[in-house]
Specification:
The complex is a heterodimer of chains A (about 120) and B (about 110). Chain A contains no helices and 11 strands. Chain A has strands at about 5, 10, 20-25, 35-40, 45-50, 60, 70-75, 80-85, 90-100, 105, 110-115. In chain A, about 0% of the residues lie in helices and about 55% in strands. Chain A has about 120 residues and is mainly β. In chain B, a hairpin with a 2-residue loop joins strand 7 (about 60-65) and strand 8 (about 70-75). Chain B has strands at about 5, 10-15, 20-25, 35-40, 45-50, 55, 60-65, 70-75, 85-90, 95-100, 100-105. The relative contact order of chain B is 0.34. Chain B is globular, with a radius of gyration of 13 Å. With about 110 residues, chain B is mainly beta. Classes of the chains: A mainly beta (about 120), B mainly beta (about 110).
């Protein structure tokens, strides 16, 4: 059975960085991509980017190209998303998803990142 | 970026009703359109992929249709567990974009 288990909630100060992990199981990690999607409180879904664990290829949404970095560790089947220079409007639930291509068929449980001074 | 216009933004309906949600893309996306259901405090779940294909395990009362720029999502007979927010998503081009969501409430 496919599972994506994310790291726990984080509270960060403005200007800090956060790194969210997404440990996968139940499928061949390098055969699917990983998307990252976020959702601000009470708002809709926003795609952040995609990474291929197979070869490290990435696609970022333009607003995350400078502050965001997606990586994977194939030895542990884990994906990571780091966001730097955090602002209050980065407060959101961050989701990793398994990408069958760019299609998100399985989702992690979400990680709440709160940015507050 | 491809804009996805979803309507209505909210909808009140009763158990047993037939409900339809529409999603309009700002350009041709072929059939690269998915529908997700999200319940409060939970991650979205994939219901329909490639416009009309039912994800494994999803009840047959859910269906989708359309291609190009105009898409519809239908629940044939609402069940109590269907009251949630629904999102369309295009994945024809990056950046992947979502509709703004339709909140389905109990009348």
């Amino acid at each position: 059975q496919v599972h994506l288990v994310q790291s726990g909630a984080e509270v960060k100060k403005p200007g800090a960085s956060v790194k969210v992990s997404c440990k996968t199981s139940g499928y061949i990690f390098t055969s699917y991509g990983i998307n990252w999607v976020r959702q601000a409180p009470g708002q809709g879904l926003e795609w952040m980017g995609w990474i291929s664990p197979h070869n490290g290829d990435t696609h970022y949404a333009q607003k995350f190209q400078v502050r965001g970095t997606m990586t994977t560790d194939t030895s542990t089947s884990t994906a990571y998303m780091e966001l730097r220079t955090l602002r209050s409007d980065d407060t959101a639930v961050y989701y990793c998803t398994r990408g069958a291509g760019l299609l998100s068929d399985y989702w992690g449980q979400g990680t709440l990142v709160t940015v507050s001074s | 970026d491809i804009q996805m216009t979803q309507s209505p933004s909210s909808l009140s309906a009763s158990v047993g009703d037939r409900v339809t949600i529409t999603c309009q893309a700002s350009q041709d996306i072929s059939n690269y359109l998915n529908w997700y259901q999200q319940k409060p405090g939970k991650a979205p779940e994939l219901l329909i992929y490639d416009a009309s294909n039912l994800q494994t395990g999803v009840p047959s009362r859910f269906s989708g249709s359309g291609s190009g720029t105009h898409f519809t999502f239908t629940i044939s007979s609402l069940q109590p567990e269907d009251f949630a927010t629904y999102y369309c998503q295009q994945y024809d081009n990056v950046p992947i974009t979502f509709g703004q969501g339709t909140r389905l409430e109990i009348k």
